[in-house]
Design brief:
This protein is an all-beta fold and about 650 residues long. The protein contains one helix and 52 strands. The protein folds into six domains: about 80 residues, no CATH class; about 80 residues, Sandwich (Immunoglobulin-like); about 100 residues, Immunoglobulin-like, CATH 2.60.40; about 100 residues, Sandwich (Immunoglobulin-like); about 110 residues, Immunoglobulins (Immunoglobulin-like), CATH 2.60.40.10; about 140 residues, Immunoglobulins (Immunoglobulin-like).
Length: about 650
Amino acid sequence: MPSPSKASLWVGSFTLPTSAGQDDAGNPSVESLSFSYQAADDLDNLGNKVRVRNAFQVYQGDLPPLDIPQNLKAVAQPNAGVALEWDPVEEARYVLYRRAESDTEFTELARLSETQTTDQLPSDGQYYYAIASERRSNDQIAVSALSAPVAVSADSIAPAAPADLALELNGAGIVATWSAPSVDAEGNTEEGAALTYNLYRLGVGEGVNVTAEELQNVIPLQTGIPEPIALDANPSESQHAYAITALDEAGNESAPSDTAYLNFGLLPVSDLSITINADGSPQLQWQHSGAAIAGYRVYVGGTGEVGEGAENLQEITSALIPHSSNPTTFVDEGFTAGAQGVTAERRYTVIAEDDQGATSIGHSLLLPALSVAVIEPADGQSVLERGVMNEVRFRVQNRGSADVAGLKLFATVSDNGTNREHQSASFSVAAGGIVEVPIVIGGYAKLDTLSDIQLRLEQSPLPGETVFIHAQDQVMVGDAALRLSLESDTVYRGGLGKFRFTLENTSLVETELLMARNNGKTASDEIRIRLEDADGNLLTLQDVQQYTGDVITVASGATVARLQPGESFVSDWIEVPVPAAAPDLVTVALEVDHFRYHTGKTTEVIIDGNGTRTQASCRRPPTTAPWIASPLRRSTPPKTPSPSPARPSTGTATPPPAMSR
């Protein structure tokens, strides 16, 4: 039969057996059908590729439905809207259902081809949504069961406008405060804890209030403000008016507050920081957005409070520091730190000055008297051990007269020239006090036996203010290892081998193994099993993928086995394909690239892993042993296309097209 492309078109037919689409007991079951092909041209060149879809479902009775869509999410939107999305199902359309809180049954809402949509609800209140997949084939429609329902609270009423907006100029910038609304725009009680705020900066005159319509084309200066206070650390010299709006959880935005106006003269400096290195002098750095600034003067002493302590300020600049570019820096050569930090506190105040000698409000920042040192183990053991996670404790001392809060300690070691930085949780030190701060540091393989450790204390008292205190120390480094073992169950030549491993956490720190990625959907790229022959030739390489059992999935989507000190983890049995030509005795190698701590967090640590090896004997598979699908091969070419029902593979599969009989 000729085809439109003038190539030969062959047409064949066949009859499926009555048992197709049934299991061994004669019950309806879904089977797969595929075709093999071979052809020869006049030169006896053979071809066997099927270049079109070659997988078909065979079933009896009703069309089998596809999988239930997963991860349905419903998010409230402004004006009683809801945004919905869910994970796709291969070759599916979708049926969306909705139920009001007063209803007993779900009602079909829409039939869709996409995996996201929006819904506009008729009224406020609690609503529930569910999703199902829809399959169409052979003039049949099959709808899956409904997904687990999700709830959403619809809200179309914006909060009332915030009140009592007030502005204050201090050394860090302009501080705005206001009162949170207690009701919505219709006078109903509003849950204040659920509100966030937008801050707008405007170029309108004093006493001029703006409307919601006027704000539609204005980009907020700050969004998502959680409390009724905000700081503009970089005020504008041309825009001096501010307004606040409140937003509820659905995103409904209130009318703006009354406009507040602050016409300042000279701006204080912003982004003020102090950095001091071990055995070095403090370096101050700041920014200024003013255009009419002549320069700056730096003072020490005083209380740091606006309007107080000015008489106690002592200038340490011999002349005006010119304002030429941002940032501006100044080194206080009259003060020096020790190797382990700062021994005496010192308060700095930076004041901007114009050509007429007028001065700005001073921006003050305290350099606290903080020092830090490694606490050596009492038993004389090494501080760090290669091959494991190490909890190193540091002594942080505050010799000053002021409490210091919001501190973090950073510790950096050199791993064969690569700097590895680790950080503590946030902590505080009372005036005259000492605290012990733990940091988990990786036992990297290339650490020197006597390793330098670079330390940095970091504090941000207010937005736009930062203090960095650098120190250094040395630590002894030893060796340790976590215990890995590997065992086998059955190993069938031409079939599957089953293996599992055990990790014993012999360290004093929680340790993790990466067992899967992408919420369990992707195999780990850090753990694998190798099968080798006696000469070391690779037979099989199998990545490990475990997402059930004694594992957890963290916020980043990584699935880890988490072992507390002294605990052991035993993996699930791992099925590994064994080639039919494998020798009687194979070497089984477990490779663990990394050990981990706090995967996906800011305190994450990753070090080199290790591995272990064992040997296993291959058996001939019994007739009931599991087997692995492989490309269909025939000893003689078939004369006509022949169907070959195939068993489902053990891996993940996508639904093929349906064929009924």
